[in-house]
Every structure is written in structure tokens, then in C-alpha cells.
Amino acid sequence: MSLRAINAYQKDSLKQRIATADPHQLTLMLMQGALDRLSFAKGAHDRNDVTARAQFISKATAIFINLRDTLDTKAGGEFADNLHDLYDYMIDKLITVNQENTISQLDEVIQLFYPIKEAWQQIPEQDKQLAYAQRQA
């Protein structure tokens, strides 16, 4: 199978997963995408590929901006406000990575974000359905 065919299959598979995903799954996909981009950025940094590192950090930053901007601060209250501030902090750190060519701040963002993604992943199905029903009402 050619690389082009594999890439086309993966793209179609992703489109299908997005089309059938509920809001919780979409958020989880974004979170995993951010972590993937941060890992790719670390690999690019190790290879001294500044252009690729900047591109991956830019994509991860865009995901964090999206996650931050879609927080429901009315429903989430103080927790959502704190998470908003944490996303701002991580975005600032990623900008600094590109400006200063330092990997330690990239590691800090990964260490801060991974538990958030893991906690999101552990939300019980019953709670997801309840939250989704409340949003629909």
C-alpha cells in the first residue's frame, strides 16, 4: 500500500470519527491532538528541525486556544475560570518555546496538560450523558 493511500485512509477515518463523535469525544480528540503535536515538536527539537518544531507548536497552540475559548464559564464557574487561566499559561509557555528555543517549557506544558486530558477521559458515561442532556435543554 502506498503512503498516499495510507494518508488518504487515515484522513477519511478521522473525518468519520469526527462526524460521529459527541462533544465529549471531540474534546478528547482535540486534547490527544494537542499532546501528539507537542510530542512531535519535541522530536523536531531533538532533530534540530526548527521549522517543524514551530509548526507543531503552532498547531498545539491553536488547539489550546480552541479549548480555552470553548469553555463554558457560566456552567463551569470557578473551575472553568481556573482552567481558562491554565490554558493561557500553557499558550504563553509555548510561545516562549519558539522564541527562546528551550525544551523545558515544552515539557512543562505536557506535564500540566496530560492530567487534564486523563481526567477528561475518565468522566463516567452517565455524567457525560447528563451534561449533554442539560446542554440540549
UniProtKB/TrEMBL annotation:
One of its GO terms (biological process) is bacterial-type flagellum assembly. Signal peptide: none annotated. One of its GO terms (cellular component) is cytosol. Its main location: cytoplasm. Coiled coil: none annotated. It is found in: Cytoplasm, Cytosol. It comes from the Bacteria. Belongs to the FliS family. PANTHER family: FLAGELLAR SECRETION CHAPERONE FLIS (PTHR34773). This is Flagellar secretion chaperone FliS. It comes from Agaribacter marinus. The gene is fliS.
